[in-house]
Design brief:
35% of the residues lie in helices and 19% in strands. It has eleven helices and 15 strands. It has helices at 46-60, 88-97, 113-127, 138-154, 164-172, 267-274, 279-290, 299-307, 314-326, 332-340, 363-375; strands at residues 2-5, 10-13, 20-29, 36-41, 66-69, 76-78, 85-86, 100-103, 188-193, 199-202, 205-208, 217-222, 226-231, 234-240, 248-249.
Length: 376
């Protein structure tokens, strides 16, 4: 399968504001039959790029062995004929559908001549036929494109027997791989380093992996509801997404056998380290461990607070710990924010007093006298 975007766009009109936007046209062509698929999209982002591939696979009702693409930034992060670097989300989609991504060489249009020709055909037989119509949504434009695709793919060849559709059914349809049972869901793909507490940080929430992977680099695939973590392309953990920042999601099977003394760390170790800061730091560390269901979840917060002494004087960190205790901010983030904003220099004792003596403030005596006059 050869894929690319057409150079020509289609205006989409906003019925309320009258503002127009440009719809991009994604095109996919099969190599033997020239069987063609086209889809209007709002942009050329990685999400649209991947959705175009999925739409093509479903239109062809099968998956080709190879997908030849242009070096679009959404799909290819680094162009190279021998070892191109493909966008990780694009690679994930290709692995899901079991198709090989083969980017064409830079400035070598003959590597994807089929889709170059397909672009011209779509612009001539579909976009030109729609040039006098006004569209108010992408879905409305795609409905019109689907009707014209049927005409294009059933149109007889001039110099060969049959049509795109008949050659597709005769030669290619049986060669395509079966579609997966479920449609691919676009996932955010990230590289992560597993912390020594065998958790990875995803948007401020910490998810566990098997403890033996501490310090290793893993791949995190994030969808709207689930997180999957892979090491050397083997899935090692799966979690439900939790958007609470600063919290932990831990599976018991991921814990080390001798949990309390793992890597020489323990609550006692960190509390002993807190003594170098002061009594308030000790109290804060104890509170952090008391509030955790699993004490190892507090290691990260305590390490962060200890590291703050490298950027701030110890006395300021101690004062920030006191303020965090006062306002129940039992976390590294609270102590860090207090220091960044200089709140540790403000006293957290006593209450706020206001001077209410002013000639324009009448006070309760005025109203008592006013009520007595009304009674009289």
């Amino acid at each position: 399968m050869f894929v690319d975007y057409a150079g020509q766009t289609v205006p989409i009109y906003d019925s309320q504001t009258g503002i127009t936007s440009k719809a991009q046209i994604f095109i996919a062509v099969l190599g033997a039959s020239n069987y063609t698929f086209a889809q209007a999209q709002s942009d050329q982002t990685i999400q649209s790029w991947i959705n175009g591939h999925i739409g093509a696979f479903e239109y062809f009702n099968g998956v080709p062995a190879q997908t030849i693409c242009d070096n679009l930034k959404s799909g290819v992060t680094k162009a190279c004929w021998y070892e191109p670097q493909v966008n990780r989300a694009y690679w994930d989609m290709a692995a899901y559908y079991n198709t090989a991504i083969m980017p064409a060489r830079v400035v070598k249009p003959r590597d994807k001549a089929k889709v170059e020709c397909g672009v011209l055909v779509v612009e001539r037989w579909i976009l030109a036929a729609l040039r006098n119509r006004k569209f108010f949504s992408i879905s409305e434009l795609n409905d019109a494109i689907k009707e014209l695709l049927i005409r294009l793919n059933t149109r007889p060849f001039k110099k060969l027997p049959g049509s795109r559709g008949s050659v597709f059914q005769e030669l290619e349809q049986k060669e395509l791989k079966n579609l997966p049972p479920a449609r691919y869901v676009l996932r955010d793909c990230r590289y992560c380093r597993v912390s020594q507490d065998y958790h990875v940080d995803i948007d401020g929430h910490y998810y566990s992996v098997p403890w033996k992977l501490a310090g290793e680099q893993v791949d995190a695939y994030i969808s709207a509801e689930t997180l999957e973590i892979f090491n050397n392309r083997h899935r090692v953990a799966s979690h439900k997404i939790d958007h609470r920042r600063g919290y932990h999601t831990t599976i018991k099977e991921h814990m080390p056998p001798r949990h309390a003394v793992y890597a020489g760390w323990s609550p006692e170790y960190f509390i002993d380290q807190a003594k170098t800061i002061g009594e308030n730091a000790v109290s804060l560390f104890k509170t952090i461990f008391e509030r955790r269901n699993i004490v190892e979840q507090g290691y990260r917060s305590c390490r962060g607070i200890l590291r703050l002494t490298q950027a701030y004087p110890t006395a300021r960190v101690e004062s920030a710990c006191a303020r965090a205790l006062k306002f129940k901010g039992y976390s590294y983030r609270s102590v860090s924010d207090i220091l960044k904003n200089g709140l540790d220099k403000q006293s957290c004792q006593g209450s706020l007093s206001l001077n209410l003596s002013h000639e324009n403030i009448r006070g309760k005596i005025y109203f008592i006298n006013s009520q007595s006059q009304e009674v009289q």
